[in-house]
Amino acid sequence: MFAAFAPVTSWWQFVVVVSLATSLDRGSAAVRSGLIASSEHGADRIRARAYLRSMTNIAMAVGAVLAALALHVDTQRAYTVVLLANGASCLLAALLLCSYPHVRAVAAREGAPMTLVFRDRPFLVMTALMAAMAVQYSILDIGVPLWLTHTDLGAARHGCPCCS
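Given the sequence above, the corresponding structure tokens read:
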């Protein structure tokens, strides 16, 4: 999806692509959880989640370094290369997931009402804290590009295809 940012040259195109990317990204957590739940059990499930979180953090750090290099070079070509490289990495991940065996859907269990979760205060507190901490991703994905369009940084005024 990030490769879709490469041809963006106007504000409205940026808004459309960001909206689509954000919508797809928000759905990825449910898919990831289902993938882990279907392939790991017990302590292995926790280990798998920790491993995936670590890999995500490493990938974010590498991506931030590459983005910083593109900002340093400050050419449209550098920005386009970073966007296309990110898109290629997502495509590679999708191809790897195609080899994962199909898992059948599990029927919902009869039992307690769905509103029962709202009685579990520790769970609600943790959910609120996790939501607050998840804002960091939105800041990197949306906040920083918007901030760049309103500063005197060279990238925002010269080479960035989304900000020109």
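Residues 2-157 form one domain. Try to locate this feature in the token string yourself.
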